[in-house]
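Course assignment 3, question 2. Fill in each field.
Student: A.L.
Task: Predict the tertiary structure for the chain below.
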Amino acid sequence: MKRSVRYDAIVIGGGHNGLVNAAYLARAGRRVLVLERRHIVGGATVTEEVYPGFKYSVASYVVSLLRPEIIRDLDLPAHGLEILPLQSTFTPLANGDHLIRWADPDATRRELCRHSPRDAEAYEEFGRLMAQIAFAVKPLLGMVPPDPTSLDPRELRGVLRLGRYFQRLGDEKFFALLKLMTMSSADFLDEWFESEPLKATLSASGTIGTFLGPRSPGTAYVLLHHYMGEIDGVFRAWGFPRGGTGALSAAIAAAAQRFSAEIRTNAPVAQVIVKDSRAAGVVLEDGEEIEGRVVVSALDPKRTFLKLIEPRHLPPDFADAIRRYKTRGSSGKVNLALDELPSFTCLPGPGPHLSGSISISPSLEYLERAYDDAKYGRWSRRPYLDILIPSLLDPTMAPPGKHVMSIFVQYVPYDLEGGWTDERREEFGDTVVETLAEYAPNILKGAILHRQVLTPWDLEETMGLTEGNIFHGELAPYQLFCLRPVPAWAKYRTPIRNLYLCGSGTHPGGGISGAPGRLAALTILGEGPS
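Answer field:
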């Protein structure tokens, strides 16, 4: 069955990048259709009431990297977006002590001084340097990567501009950036600090979403990647959208619909139609054919090219490069409905320390041992946990007096030794809860009303993330900028004309940024269909 309407653009996948892409195309007057396989838009950026009365940010759970120009261009606050800032990072320790970094620099300095006066002195300088580098690198997030191998004058001009850009950084920033691109997060932080809880908590940001440990080269860049966020002009701030991360997707979807984009849910795409080496539309799983002058995939590169495209339409070397593209899943998620707040042994009872991020990352050795387990096909026996209690920021997330808890978990291999089963999923969930209970014992004493456990396998099956990789591919140096997803095809275009990518598998990568969706739309609008 063929649908008579022909669209200017069909966007496959209603994740936040797909919605951003659709909104920009519709804003430019294009007739746009978004096709989402699930019953709800947002991809991994969704809020769902899995347990009655409790709203979970099921997968993605914090916001910082969302590009300010997207917020402005789409007027997202007018569509309900409100981001509540996180004020602290609390690291409980097994010896009864703790480390808290506050939004207030003076409070953080006093806290660090308890652990190491030297680190308290170094922390301000470290933050200043990281901020300078992040500010310097941040324009690259809004730039379409030039192809350094092309002789096209436009590409050569882009490479020249890039060279001049790096030249303007100055020696200190350039060499610091070079170290961040090549060093491990642990080695980089060892040069600055001596306190294990501080180094570990900072270093953990360098491993999120990667199958790498804190001592693996390249993780220092991932640390920088997470340093480049801002909320309402406040640099290096993280926040929680009121209503959960799904509220962000809903705001972008509303903006796209205001510009007359059409969004269909429960509409899984089975195939991209290719005619005369050009994308011409899609076929849904129910057999419906929809024509489009341009097709844009917000799915990851492997799912796009290895699932939706017939092999005969792809150059063999390109298909091989896509197969080699690394998407190893390493993260899991546990969401809890709680009858009471956790009470940490080191800092009992409620308090402001519970309203920010809670990080189970006591030492670099702890993180590296967690990675060691995953290297051999096991989930970490004592994993890194990044915890948020959204109901303390937004009481609408849970019934009065109750709470929801979001636990991001590292490491959880997709290729688990012996494979994933329902029983092993629950065993993994037990490990996470038992690890938390070592620091907050009341969690195991009737506090949990409901538990949702997501493994990388679940993220693949439910949200379409190949191997459960939350970034659509590792953020390693060999898969960044003009190498993302593969060399010579990092400009949102593909070997099939009129087929584009706009997901996190393209520059500048993962996180709730919307940048790939926006840059892909600008690329399409700049050149038009051929």
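Instructor remarks: The first helix runs from residue 16 to 27. The two ends are 26 Å apart (CA to CA).
Grade: pending
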